[in-house]
Amino acid sequence: MKDIPKKPINQTITKFIISIVLIFLAIWSASGLEISLERLSKAPQLTWTLISALYPIDLSQEALDRIIPKVFESLYIAWTGTVIGAIFSFPIAFISAKNTSVSIKIPKFLTNKNYFIYSSQFMKQILNIVRAFPELLLAFVFLPITGLGALTGTLAIGIHSIGTLGKLSSEVIEGIDEGPLEAIKASGGSKSNELIFGVIPQVMPTIISYWLYRFEINLRASAVLGVIGAGGVGQELINQLRFRAFDRAGTVLVATIILVLSIDTVSGALRRRIIKGKSVTVEQN
Amino acid sequence: MNKLSTKIPKKPYPSPLIYLGAPLVLLFTRFSFNKIGFDWEKFKTNLDNRHIVTDPLFDPKWSWAIENTALPLIETIQIAILASLIGCFVALPISFFASKTTNPSIYTFALNKSFLNLIRTIPDLFWGMLFVAAVSQGPFAGVLALTMFSLAIMGKLLSETIDAIDPGPLEAARATGSSQQQTVFSSALPQVMPNFIAYFLYIFELCIRASVILGLVGAGGVGRIIETQRIFLRFDRISPIIVFILAIVIVIEQVSVYVRRKVL
């Protein structure tokens, strides 16, 4: 009988150390937050009490008249925010990708060698900074300028989307196949020909699917933004919960779930279709 | 010349749905922009109000922030650690049930899958509000909210990873007569473990970001301070907090990118 190779000993030690550290972190956090097992075990029961209070949801005409427009407002905010993000992030993605970035030559009298600055070097950092701010913090900043309402939410979501979409799109552009670009160069195409016929057809399906994906995320974000009064359904939920009108809060919750689920389904199907493409039969000669 | 060239395949016509869909999308965009109500004149007059925010925002009060936000920041990190740990480890069995490769029973599969889909539709701050209503204000509500949040994300990511694993080891385990449970533990779990660790770090990052804003609805953490200072328009106190959070997020992101590269 052959010996089964033993597990390397340092792997076991690393696993052991990592689990000790994780357990220690969990205990440290739990004691810091004053969370005991007793409280944790009570939580499902309390949650169930809340859910059963939500259940016979309020479907009266008055409630629906209040809630349905708010739900749709969230949809409008998410869509316009995504459109703003898509329109602005598209050109930004090209100047922040390494292979399509614009170069600026440093004047001769500053350096003794030929030295170039590429736009990708600083655009990437700008996008990182934009991306780091959550939508809610952006909305704080816009509130005094644009007032309470949907516009604030739209601007916050739009700017955050520019950051995220710009980063994702520029990564797609960096990952393209260089072959078609070479072919265009070889047949005498200019730099802009390369961009239009070489880069854009390659990246467009992925980028559009990212736009749709962002729309799904923005829908959730716009629902949340109402909490600080930036339009959308969040305002309605927090008000109903504060007034202990649990049946109406249930209506808000169900309406949000229905909207998000249906948008997710439609956009997911579209994304799959865009990425897979239509099946084409090529005639062989 | 003509003999050599092969027939170039024709460009496929775009689907008729595009002719129908594109104008509809444009109309919807126009309609939503109208609904949002952008008024250029109003915007211009209100632009002077930006000084309310921008002037204090660039005049940060560091000493105040260091004195008052150290503990809530630690609380934020603790919420994120606890929530991502509980959420991810609860998600582990659920995602094995929510994948057809490891769960032969169609009923439990459908049950777990639809449970994951349902909790994924509710945004993080909504969970915060619901749990504040259920278990009262404080960081405990925040932990529960983020637990649901990380459970939803981990469930989706992990169950899709389990869908795509190599079925060979599973078959080998079944051929030796192991039970369903033994098969999952010996053949499926080791395959997805690196992904699980990578997703865990990613979710921990998301939780840190999310736990910052949870305080707005009274679910603990540094968001509580942000909310109270925001109401009094003390943006000079908020801006150092934002800087601290950015620093924490960037450090955690770098660490997790490093670990992910090592693991995968």
Question: What layout of secondary structure does this protein have?
Answer:
The complex is a heterodimer of chains A (285) and B (264).
Chain A: H1 9-32, H2 37-54, H3 61-96, E1 103-105, E2 116-118, H4 119-132, H5 135-146, H6 150-174, H7 179-186, H8 191-225, H9 233-242, H10 246-276
Antiparallel strand pairs in A: 1-2
Helix pairs in contact in A: 2-10, 3-6, 3-8, 3-10, 4-6, 5-6, 6-8, 7-8, 8-10, 9-10
Chain B: H1 16-36, H2 40-46, H3 50-57, H4 62-97, H5 106-121, H6 124-135, H7 139-163, H8 167-175, H9 180-214, H10 223-231, H11 235-263
Report on this structure:
- The complex is a heterodimer of chains A (285) and B (264).
- By secondary structure, chain A is an all-alpha fold.
- Chain A has one domain: MetI-like (MetI-like fold).
- Chain A has ten helices and two strands.
- A two-stranded antiparallel ribbon of chain A has the order 1-2.
- In chain A, helix 2 crosses helix 10, helix 3 runs antiparallel to helix 8 and helix 9 packs antiparallel against helix 10.
- Chain A is extended, with a radius of gyration of 26 Å.
- With 264 residues, chain B is mainly alpha-helical.
- Chain B has eleven helices and no strands.
- Chain B starts with 15 loop residues before the first helix and ends with a helix.
- The mean pLDDT of chain B is 86.
- The chains are: A mainly alpha (285), B mainly alpha (264).
- The interface between A and B is large, with 63 and 64 residues.
